[in-house]
């Protein structure tokens, strides 16, 4: 795993996004840097988040407007549930979801003309321990076409790909703020499919102490489903469980509510046990939780509040990819001039 140690700070401009949050925009050599976090549960960009699910149709959908048109096919976004795939480049779904994420992000940036043209540098990521082995294949997968035309909401997006940079999840989310991490801190990025762990020592990554565990929020989903079904015979709808995991609120009657709470608490305790397996000691170091599972730990876990930090911004990695990519490209450009 190759880490480029970043010096924090930026000279990129800022603009206001559709939710009034100030989000920086980065560009290099005339190409917009667009960060896409290809999560197993949700696709995220700096400004948008949607379910990692897509279904193809041969004709335009009647009931949904949230679809893209590409190469003669119509792809409804957020329909169904995509299973866990360790190698994301083994099917077309992640590519189509990435195109959907790009046009949604471009729309959020104000590109809403009937025809929109953009030259972009794609910034994506992979789990910590998978980056080195899968980076080149994932980059080729994303750059399979040098340019594409994608229809979305009666608009046409003509996209030219200037390049693609693949970065490590978890670390990328905090690179802009490394100076704030004093002492030893364990980063715990809990996604839907995996949990990425990494130690920082005064803001510097400890490469030998980084792990990717298959202990994402989907494991909690399965615990809830199985426990309720086993104890009551009832089958909770997927959307009901998703809403609980997303909001952290259990709005069900007993005994269902108690069973759901127990399943979540059991899952959170598994997380802390995994941290302890990797030398975590809440008395001697800090832990920084992020990702979709951070809110579950905050609401249902037992922890030392003085040494525990929660970042509940589910788009933190996507934003971090843009910053990290910008800094890498700027470093490469300066090195090429020497």
TrEMBL record:
<dbReference type="Pfam" id="PF21522">
    <property type="entry name" value="MreB-like_C"/>
</dbReference>
<dbReference type="InterPro" id="IPR040607">
    <property type="entry name" value="ALP_N"/>
</dbReference>
<dbReference type="Pfam" id="PF17989">
    <property type="entry name" value="ALP_N"/>
</dbReference>
<feature type="domain" description="Actin-like protein N-terminal">
    <location>
        <begin position="35"/>
        <end position="171"/>
    </location>
</feature>
<feature type="domain" description="Actin homologue MreB-like C-terminal">
    <location>
        <begin position="188"/>
        <end position="299"/>
    </location>
</feature>
<protein>
    <submittedName>
        <fullName>Uncharacterized protein</fullName>
    </submittedName>
</protein>
<dbReference type="InterPro" id="IPR043129">
    <property type="entry name" value="ATPase_NBD"/>
</dbReference>
<dbReference type="InterPro" id="IPR049067">
    <property type="entry name" value="MreB-like_C"/>
</dbReference>
């Amino acid at each position: 795993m190759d880490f480029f140690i970043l010096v924090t700070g930026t000279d990129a401009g800022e603009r206001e996004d559709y939710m009034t949050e100030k989000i920086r925009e980065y560009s290099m050599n005339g190409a917009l840097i667009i960060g896409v976090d290809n999560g197993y549960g949700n696709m995220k960009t700096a400004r948008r988040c949607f379910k990692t699910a897509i279904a193809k149709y041969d004709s335009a959908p009647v009931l949904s407007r949230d679809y893209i048109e590409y190469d003669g096919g119509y792809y409804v976004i957020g329909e169904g549930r995509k299973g866990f795939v360790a190698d994301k480049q083994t099917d077309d779904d992640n590519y189509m979801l990435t195109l959907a994420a790009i046009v949604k992000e471009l729309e959020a940036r104000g590109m809403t003309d009937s025809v929109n043209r953009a030259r972009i540098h794609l910034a994506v990521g992979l789990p910590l321990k998978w980056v080195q082995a899968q980076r080149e294949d994932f980059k080729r997968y994303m750059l399979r076409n040098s340019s594409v035309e994608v229809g979305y909401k009666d608009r046409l997006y003509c996209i030219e790909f200037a390049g693609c940079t693949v970065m490590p999840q978890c670390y990328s989310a905090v690179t802009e703020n490394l100076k704030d991490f004093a002492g030893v801190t364990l980063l715990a990025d809990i996604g839907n499919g995996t949990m990425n762990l990494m130690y920082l020592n005064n803001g510097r990554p400890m490469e030998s102490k980084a792990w990717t565990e298959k202990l994402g929020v989907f494991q909690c989903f399965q615990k809830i489903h199985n426990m309720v079904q086993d104890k009551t015979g009832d089958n909770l709808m997927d959307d009901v469980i998703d809403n609980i995991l997303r909001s952290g609120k259990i709005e069900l009657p007993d005994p269902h509510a108690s069973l759901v709470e127990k399943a979540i608490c059991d899952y959170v305790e598994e997380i802390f046990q995994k941290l302890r397996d990797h030398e975590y000691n809440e008395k001697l170091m800090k832990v920084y939780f992020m990702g979709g599972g951070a809110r579950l730990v905050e609401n249902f876990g037992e922890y030392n509040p003085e040494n525990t930090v929660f970042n509940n911004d589910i788009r933190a990695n996507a934003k971090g990819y843009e910053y990290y990519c910008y800094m890498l490209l700027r470093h490469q450009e300066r090195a090429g001039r020497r």
